[in-house]
Design a protein that fits this description.
Layout lengths: L8 H7 L6 E4 L3 E5 L10 E5 L11 H22 L3 E5 L9 E7 L4 H7 L1 H8 L3 H13 L5
Antiparallel strand pairs: 1-2, 2-3, 3-5, 4-5
Length: 146
């Protein structure tokens, strides 16, 4: 189990030492409204209460709770904002604590514009069949635990 760093803002929020706009909470997960939304109004953060850096480092039951809470909040976002879709983003570089971002997505959202960009698709189009086969085989052979 990773030790909770005193400076981790998500750990501070979970412990009640930092303010947040709580939207949902259970024994494993806390969901807060993102106070600095990069993707628009309603963006929220689904946070594991236990400090680990990446969501795939969670125990199976914690992982299930994190994504169950994400589903509940996605339904609430869809009901509240009527977006084209509710997007989920899990990167973890901004705050190294297991979490996912959810936001109401429209055709005008920054991530949709990014994925529709010509640069991304022109780069993907350069992938050969042999490269795809090689990557697929490496992924099939990888051990999920390490």
């Amino acid at each position: 189990m990773a030790e909770e760093p005193a400076e981790c803002i998500f750990c501070q929020i979970v412990r009640g030492e930092a303010e947040s706009k709580k939207l949902y909470e259970d024994d494993e997960v806390l969901v807060i409204l993102d106070t600095m939304p990069r993707f628009g109004q309603g963006q929220c953060v689904v946070i594991s209460k236990r400090h680990v850096t990446r969501f795939y480092e969670l125990e199976d039951h914690e992982f299930c709770q994190l994504f169950r809470a994400a589903k509940v909040m996605a339904q609430k976002l869809a009901q509240t904002f009527s977006p084209d879709a509710v997007a989920m983003f899990a990167r973890g570089r901004g705050v190294p604590h297991a979490h996912v971002l959810l936001y109401p997505a429209t055709r005008r959202s920054p991530m949709d514009r990014f994925f529709e960009g010509a640069y991304l698709f022109s780069e993907l189009a350069k992938t050969t069949e042999e490269e795809l086969d090689s990557v697929a085989q490496r992924l099939r052979d990888a051990s999920p635990g390490g």
